[in-house]
Design a protein that fits this description.
single chain, Alpha-Beta Plaits, 5-stranded mixed beta sheet
């Protein structure tokens, strides 16, 4: 005979409390994966998704791209318009980017003024086209409602996955490409791929 309580009135409050606690734990777990200011994924969450995409790519052979975009002149924006307007710039870029990107793409905040974008099933040249579209879309936003008299742009570092690498390696490579783009000037893009080991070329020559 089963000893499990079936509909015991005394147990109903306990069940309700446990269910509510489970909801709270799930909500806290979800909050830990998202950026407080913009509501998009945070760096930790984004890195986990890059790792997932690396595993998927190794199974399917389909490449993907990872982009890092950095707001141009963010320090000057904060100084000229104030921190609240600066936060609104970041929130606007996050919202507008998510509107344009595909449903399978993933968008998150990496640092104060930088965001990361996962572009699944995307070759490098396709990633360049996608980021150019996003750049034009963001530049075309009516920034007078946020930063009166100033159009906000971003620079981009773009990379594609390489065999047997980890998420942080891919993210750091994209950040390096972003640094190279910003060194050229605002509203620029640089691509950077992982260098293939010399042993691979030696094997090809044999």
């Amino acid at each position: 005979m089963s000893t499990e309580c079936q509909g015991c009135p005394a147990c109903e409050p306990l069940r309700a409390q446990l269910a509510e606690k489970d909801k709270q734990i799930a909500a806290m777990s979800e909050m830990m994966r998202h950026d407080v200011l913009t509501g998009v994924h945070n760096r930790r969450s984004l890195a986990e998704m890059v790792d997932d995409e690396l595993l998927r790519s190794s199974r399917t052979g389909q490449p993907f791209c990872f982009a890092v975009i950095g707001v141009d002149g963010m320090k000057d924006i904060n100084e000229r318009y104030g921190r609240l307007k600066g936060d609104l710039v970041l929130q606007t870029i996050a919202r507008e980017s998510c509107l344009l990107l595909r449903t399978l793409d993933r968008f998150g905040r990496i640092d104060e003024d930088t965001f990361g974008i996962i572009l699944p099933v995307t070759w490098l040249h396709q990633g360049v086209l996608a980021m150019n579209r996003l750049n034009a879309f963001i530049a075309g936003f009516d920034w007078n409602t946020v930063t009166d008299g100033r159009t906000v742009t971003f620079s981009t570092g773009l990379t594609t996955n390489a065999p047997a690498e980890k998420a942080e390696g891919m993210i750091e490579r994209a950040l390096k490409a972003l640094g190279e783009a910003k060194a050229v000037g605002p509203n620029n893009m640089q691509t950077l791929e992982q260098e293939l080991p010399a042993s691979l070329f030696a094997a090809m020559d044999d």
